[in-house]
Amino acid sequence: MTKPQIVVYSKPRCVKCDWTYKALDAKGITYDVVNLAEDENALEYVKDLGYLEAPVVVVDDQDHWSGFRPDHIDRIASHLTH
Predict the structure, then answer these.
(1) How is the chain split into domains, by residue range?
(2) If we measure between CA atoms, which residue out of 38, 36, 31 comes closest to residue 48?
(3) Torsion, Cα of 70, 73, 79, 80 (10° steps)
(4) pLDDT band at 61, cuts 50/70/90?
(5) Taking the domain 6-80, which CATH number applies?
(6) CB half-sphere exposure, 68, CA atoms < 13 A
(7) Average pLDDT, whole number, for the chain?
(8) What are the two backbone dihedrals, phi and then psi, of residue 61, each rounded to the nearest 5 degrees?
(9) Phi and psi for 44 in degrees, rounded to 5?
(10) Global pTM value
């Protein structure tokens, strides 16, 4: 199983974004960060997914969510360790 390329779409001064980074780091999950304030295409992408709140975490086309969701982070961590 290949590791998914997780992307966290974020914005500056976002507490839920910071919590998400810390939770991903604590689980040893690697991810890329895209700043929605600087990337208009990324902002359109997350809006097209139906999200209006940062962070938006995208694991793949079928697996994504918005906000701080430790339950989802635990779920993907368990998949990555098996």
Answers:
(1) 6-80
(2) 36
(3) -140
(4) confident
(5) 3.40.30.10
(6) 10
(7) 93
(8) -60, -25
(9) -65, -40
(10) 0.91
